[in-house]
Design brief:
8-stranded mixed beta sheet; 11 helices; two-stranded antiparallel ribbon
Length: 314
């Protein structure tokens, strides 16, 4: 490990217990920073309501830390929107945001568009499929952004149990993202959960970053933020244990391919001969191929979007 990364781990890796809530709230009141919590959601009616309710109770009603909770629904066919609204979130449909730019499927697409419908100086992203959710996931990662002026982006780190076994979650992280980062961006080798969906950043940083529209958004954001603001402006906070719905092996394969494509675009902006992934499923006549595109669009920095600039002027 690079000496620079060892120093970073000692100075930019914290525990949620390092910043009690009263200290975080005092820093918010002193700085006047506002905080938006964003949940990208697609068919998450079983979990989204509990997450919204916990954030609202703990960090809006008990103490005034969070200023708004926004759920961006990316086309749910279940009751995600209704459940989220009933729990106290403002719900916005992905397709209602920036309608002149046709929306495409993908998590990064939703995160990018969320900048247009939130107002916080600090934006905190939380996946909507978390179970047994704790508000520490929010307070833990916004804390350093309120108390440390030099920090611009904070990732959550945590254990990810799989089928009851500790430390077995995050398969795409261990098999794809971590090797890529260690080989090509060794300054980022200290991140425990580089692909984790819980992170917070200053709007002033987010609006300068391109957003891969799919699963590559977390890796792309880390790499681009490293180049834009430097390693010392990035941090991570241990928030405990993350429990969520796990995807099957083929879905993870497609995720890994998108992440590799995102990395490849940052290594060299050339064209791949075949940005696709073929997988196999057993059918009536044996194994049948299924080919998926893993090419990924990227949305430009939000600061380049006229509607966003007009909103800031207004």
């Amino acid at each position: 490990m690079l000496e620079e990364v060892e120093h970073w781990l000692a100075t930019r890796s914290w525990s949620v217990t390092d910043r009690p809530l009263h200290r975080i709230l005092s820093a918010k009141q002193r700085t006047g920073r506002t905080i938006s919590v964003v949940l990208p959601a697609l068919n998450e009616e079983e979990t989204v309501g509990d997450i919204v309710a916990v954030v609202r109770h703990d960090l809006m009603e008990q103490i005034p830390l969070v200023d708004e909770i926004v759920v961006v629904d990316s086309g749910s066919t279940d009751r995600t929107s209704e459940v989220a609204a009933a729990a106290g979130a403002r719900v916005v449909h992905r397709d209602e945001i920036l309608p002149r730019v046709p929306a495409v499927p993908g998590k990064g697409e939703v995160l990018w568009r969320s900048l247009l419908v939130t107002g916080g100086d600090i934006v905190c992203f939380v996946d909507a499929d978390l179970r047994e959710f704790s508000s520490d996931f929010v307070s833990g990662i916004v804390g350093p952004l309120l108390t440390e002026p030099g920090v611009d982006l904070v990732k959550a780190m945590y254990d990810r149990p799989l089928a009851g076994a500790a430390g077995q979650g995050g398969r795409v992280t261990e098999l794809m993202a971590r090797p890529l980062l260690n080989l090509h961006w060794p300054q980022l080798a200290g991140f425990v959960q580089p692909l984790g969906g819980e992170y917070a950043a200053r709007r002033s940083l987010l609006e300068q970053l391109p957003f891969p529209v799919g699963y590559g958004v977390e890796l792309g954001m880390l790499v681009d933020a490293l180049h834009l603001v430097g390693l010392d402006a990035l941090a991570q906070v241990d928030v405990g244990v993350r429990k969520h719905r796990h995807q099957d092996g083929q879905a993870l394969g497609r995720m890994a391919a998108e992440i590799y494509r995102t990395a490849q675009l940052r290594l060299a902006r050339g064209h791949l001969v075949r940005p696709a992934l073929t997988q196999f499923e057993r059918g009536r006549n044996g194994f049948e191929p299924r080919t998926y595109s893993v090419d990924t669009e990227e949305r430009p920095p939000m600061a380049e979007i006229a509607e966003y600039a007009d909103r800031k002027v207004a």
